[in-house]
Each structure stands twice: as structure tokens, then as C-alpha cells.
């Protein structure tokens, strides 16, 4: 006899319809469970297959691909490398030729199980490589291996050059390499930033936003924190090749003018420029500084009868300047020379040097400038064949006539420099000019005062696109007067006594100038921040990487 608890309540018996519904739900649940299990098993099988590819000999073509063992990368054998081909040299002329190339796997794309595409990049040049399953060279396992490569890995490829019938979009080289062998030399880890994101222009990002799309924008700090990756973008490849050319042109032009290069010490006993913006350190129990410029020693070299000298080297400024154009360490391009009669001899050299530099960059760095402009659009610099020279008083007058009040015995601030640059461009049609006869009060202690008005000096600044890039002057070469000027500027004469003494044994009238390499490149390329032209910037907040 059934107990009340065991008996179903009246009317609670399941109908055939309810039973069918429960059965359908159970069946769906079971099917989903089996599908999940099948997927997991499939993934495990794929993973096991991938693992086996690198350790077993089941693939008869396994020797045509894989990771290069460390021992093979330890300079195991010396051999001729002339049979290697640079990616930038891959042209139609090499059609049907076998080549061996090395580069980074910029992009990898598999098309089914029988084909994979790899875009290989080397020094800014790119080529599309195609791996297609073939009985004697490329297996499915090899295609799978290629598809599993991480982006930016360094790979070696042996293959045959082919010329497709249609244009290849997205690569610099208009040929393909039909892959026969592929080996990974160095695997890249997961990238903190993607190169294509870092190479994207603000214009492209804004256009996407207007179209309702969102593209990744890599900010400056993220770039600098991952500088090794950031440097791989086409724009940065261009920037630092242009920078190299600026240094090369500077050196070759001056050598052709009878100058030679020196290398002055960067550890000095006292401030080379005056002021508090100096890095101080303990030098074996003595107080020392990092040189703010090679100023003192290049003048001493002139006293040593070197006549005409230049230097390319590091410069240190301990300024707390959080601006777009200041760094705590930069590369200085410095010149010093004897003058016969007038400091205009130095200004004439500056004009000819930089016109030659701009001409050479425009002629020989067209591809690099184009790469920079794609990411950071800019207009070519406007300059005259003979450099415009204006007096400081003339510049002040131009500003006053435009409604800007300027202290005639003070310095120009950044805003006034930019304003004057626009006025000069409008009136004279140039973005490169020299402003000279600055007030003495705003120049370093070693600057020679004007003969007709000691409130002004035989000094000059040079501007590109409204920003100062060069400071120069005739120097004080009379030791007694030099001592007086140093004391007036608050410099402890004892710390520069050897410098002053160098002028006691006969010193020729001389002058010179200094320019920041990074600032020249920044302004020539119309960039908005000097950190873009410094390889690994050092500013008040950054000491790494």
C-alpha cells in the first residue's frame, strides 16, 4: 500500500507532451556536452600533433623547417655570406633565381591547410613569401609550422623568386619568394605593442573615428617604454637614418672647409656654461660636473693652434624642462674657428653649412623623408640659397610692429620666437634664418660684447620653423676680461682657472657655435617632440630604457 508521500498528487501525472519536452532538452544538453568534449579532444590532438612535429621524424620533409638549435647560432662555422640576398635587393631581375634571405616575420596568414603567406621585413624593406604544399619541398606540417610562427620572429627563408601578374599591395618589393625551406632563428614573445599600431598616423586614426571605427593609438610613453619595438616602424627607421646623414654631412662639409674633429672630456671641474643646470658628481673626492658643452675645451684647442675644429658628442643639461624641445642629454654638433676680422665669418659658415645640409637631405633622403611624412605629415622646409641675417634689434622691431611688446635688452621667449618666425616667413619667404647682436645680459660669460654698444654682444642664434637650433658668438680671448665676465656671471673662477690660463700665452680672436642634433632633425622633419628624434631619450622623468 502506497504511503501518502509516495503517491503523486491528483492531476500531477506527466503527459506525453511534457515527457517529449523533457527528452528534447536532455538531448540538446547531451549534444552540447558531446560537442564540447569533441572540441576539447580535437584541440588536444592538434596540440599533440604540433608537439610531435618538432621531435619526431614522421614528416619526411621535416628537415626543411623548424627552430634553429642554439649550437648552430654560436658561430659554429665560418662561411662566405655573399650568397645571402637582402630583401631590398629582391627585384624582377632575380626571377626564377634561388635566394636565401633573413628578416622578421611581419605578418603570417594561413590559407587552408595547404598554403601560408609570410611578409618578411628587413631594414624597412618587405617581401611576400608563399609556402604551398608540394610533394618534394613543402608538407602540410611545414605550412602548419609557418602558420604558428609569432610575429616579429627572425626567420631564414630559402626559396625561388617569382614575379606575380598583379601588383602586390602592402610590400615594398614587387616580387614573391616561393618558399622551399624556412627556419626560425629567434622566436618573438607576445608583443606589448603591435608594430602596425605604432606605425599608424593620427590622420588615419581620426578618419577612422569619423567613420565610426576605433583604431589603436599608441601614446608617447608607451612607445618609449617599448622603444625597441617602436624603432621598427618605417617612420623611425627614416628618422634615424636622416639623423645619421645630418651628422655625416656636418662632418664632411667641415672637413672640406679645413676643419678637423676633436674629442673633449665630458668630466670637468666646473660649469662650462654657468648657471645651476649642471649634473654634479664626486670625482675621486673632488667635485666635478658633466660637461654642459665642449665650450671650454674647444676654445683651449684653438689656443693650441688647431685653427678650425669641430666635435660631435654628448651634452648634459640638468634643466627641469618639461617641454617638447628639451632633453637632459643630447648630441651636440660643435664648431670653433679662428676669425680674422668679424664674427660674421662664423655666421657665413653656418649659412653655407646648413643650406648644403638641407639640399643633401632633400636629394639623398627622399625615401626616408617620405616614410616620416606618411606617419607624421609635414611640409618641406622653406629656405633661401643665401641665408637671411637679421639684427636682434630688427627682430624686436618686427615684433613691435605686429603688436608684440619685447624687452630690447631681454631674451625672446618661445612664443615670441615662433611669432617672429611667422613674420620672417611672410616677409622673406624662409623658415631658416640668423638673428644676431643679442643683448649681452642673456648670453654666456665668454661672449664678446659689441664694440659700439656693450649692452649687446657679438652673438647669434639660428632658427628653423620659428624655433632656435643654434647659439654662437665671438668669444672673449683676453684672460683679464674673461675673468671679469665669469665673476659677473656668478662663476667660481677657481673651477675654470685652467681654461682662463690657456689664454695667457697668446690667443687668436675666435668664435664658434653649437647645435643639437636631435633638434635639427625634429625641426627639419616638422616633428612635434624632440623625443621622437632621440634614440633613447633622457629627460627629467626618464632614465630607461
From TrEMBL:
Bias (Basic and acidic residues) ranges: 28-43
Record InterPro entries: Aa-tRNA-synt_II (IPR004364), aa-tRNA-synth_II (IPR006195), aa-tRNA-synth_II/BPL/LPL (IPR045864), Asp-tRNA_synthase_2 (IPR004523), Asp/Asn-tRNA-synth_IIb (IPR002312), NA-bd_OB-fold (IPR012340)
Protein name: aspartate--tRNA ligase
Family per record: Belongs to the class-II aminoacyl-tRNA synthetase family. Type 2 subfamily.
EC number(s) reported in the record: 6.1.1.12
GO biological process: aspartyl-tRNA aminoacylation
Catalyses which reaction(s): tRNA(Asp) + L-aspartate + ATP = L-aspartyl-tRNA(Asp) + AMP + diphosphate
Keyword terms of this UniProt record: Aminoacyl-tRNA synthetase, ATP-binding, Cytoplasm, Ligase, Nucleotide-binding, Protein biosynthesis
NCBIfam families from the UniProt entry: aspS_nondisc (TIGR00458), PRK05159.1 (NF003483)
Coarse class of the protein's main subcellular location: cytoplasm
Organism annotation: Malus domestica
